[in-house]
Amino acid sequence: MSYKAPKGTKDILPCESYIWEYIEKKARTLFEKANYKEIRTPVFESTELFARGVGDSTDIVNKEMYTFVQKDRSLTLRPENTAGVVRAFIEHGMHRLPGPLKLWYKGPMFRYERPQAGRQRQFHQLGLEIFGIESPSADAEAIQIAMKFLNELGLAGLVLEINNIGCPECRNEYKEKIKEAIRPKLREFCEDCHLRFEKNPLRILDCKNEKCRELLSTPEIDSVINREFICEPCVAHFEELKEYLKLLEIDYVINKKLVRGLDYYNRTVFEITSTNLGSQNAVCGGGRYDPLVETLGGPQTPAVGWAMGMERLFSLCKAPGQKPLDVFIVSDDTKEALKLASEIREHGISVDFDFSARKFAKQMEKASKTGARFALILREEELKTGELTLKNLATGNQEKVSPGEIPEKVNI
Ligand code: ATP
Ligand code: MG
């Protein structure tokens, strides 16, 4: 029997983990500069939380959740993190903290999807949420930080798409008009769209199915999406957001068919895509979700946020190379090598050694193979004189050093 990682999951190996670390570190630095605090919530929550918080007309809830029953309780591996963050926000009374509250998170998410390039069953998201601000200045800050982060990672070909999907009130008329325009050809739409037609007809607009997209490219549909059914305050919110984006010099494209997968969005929705990715080209998706905190049992609290797929960032980002090991100790006395290694590490130098007292030549070979910058040689003769030999493995130069000189020599 040989075991393999489950379909749709991936091991992050040592040759890649430093790139993940690089991305995470960049994110933390940027978010902290803007006063976002990290939140870590459980990877599973009650199934009910996602059914209500993500919405039962979504693909996520209908088809993609990993759900299991434990002692009569239905639990689900988180398919996204906004519902969990909102649950924690309410549970810990965070609305009582001086607002606005700005949070960020990173971690694995789980969705039962068909695995393909850029699409896994366990994948990782990085996200942020702003609670307590109704003004589109919060939408603009969220978008600005997402764009800044992607630019800092060196991602090219970024396109920001925005749309205004109105509020639960004004969306009703819009939904009816969309249904009217789609109804004559409904039979030709995909199975999912039939379900959406009843539960959340606007979602039909951003169906990824080719046939559905074709059916939606008609003057009738265009005339519905171009006529403003959105109420005055929602229009004003969008206009103001556009002004903020202009002020921040962030280019955008208005995509009136952009709706986004989650049921809880209102007013602003946005997506950032990269022209350098294949068919799974969305790197970041987000929007405003003013009704969600109340829907999940908390006090009415406006909120906006986004999530990014880290695997997709990983494939595009230009990370610097892995930092090499500073010193490899070559010694015929394992005890002394172990002791010396732990002493030098105290100075912030990375050190490794061969755990055996094998032949000098073999150990030197290993030192080169690890890619270390220096070999520090500690044989009987060095032990006797108390001076070590430090060999620069790039230039081949070597010199005698006293233990106290090592940090200075290595850190040059
Ligand atoms: P998609 O249309 O690609 O399915 P989505 O609308 O389901 O995306 P969101 O729920 O908004 O995605 O998640 C935000 C981001 O997380 C996406 O833009 C994408 O980068 C990433 N993402 C979503 N699902 C997956 C997955 N199965 N594997 C890898 N990344 C994913
Ligand atoms: Mg999806």
Ligand names = adenosine-5'-triphosphate, magnesium ion
The 3D shape can be described as elongated
Low-confidence stretches: none
Chain oligomer state? single chain
Q: What strand line-up does the widest sheet have?
A: 1-5-6-11-10-9-7-8
Radius of gyration over all CA atoms, rounded: 28 Å
Kindly give the count of domains. 2
Summary, kept brief:
The protein is an alpha+beta fold. It has helices at 14-33, 47-53, 59-64, 82-91, 136-152, 171-182, 191-199, 210-216, 219-226, 232-247, 292-295, 310-316, 334-345, 360-369, 380-385, 406-410; strands at 37-38, 44-46, 66-70, 73-77, 101-110, 122-131, 158-164, 253-254, 266-274, 282-288, 303-309, 327-331, 351-353, 374-378, 388-392, 398-401.
How would you explain this protein's 3D organization?
The protein is an alpha+beta fold and 412 residues long. It has two domains: 14-167 and 230-316, Bira Bifunctional Protein, Domain 2 (BirA Bifunctional Protein, domain 2), CATH 3.30.930; 327-410, Rossmann fold, CATH 3.40.50.800. The protein is 38% helix and 22% strand. It has 16 helices and 16 strands. Strands 1-5-6-11-10-9-7-8 form an eight-stranded mixed beta sheet. A five-stranded mixed beta sheet has the order 13-12-14-15-16, with helices on both faces. A hairpin with a 7-residue loop joins strand 9 (266-274) and strand 10. The chain is elongated, with a radius of gyration of 28 Å. The mean pLDDT is 92. The protein binds adenosine-5'-triphosphate and magnesium ion. Adenosine-5'-triphosphate is lined by residues 80, 111, 113, 118-120, 123, 125, 261, 280, 282-285, 307-309, 311-312.
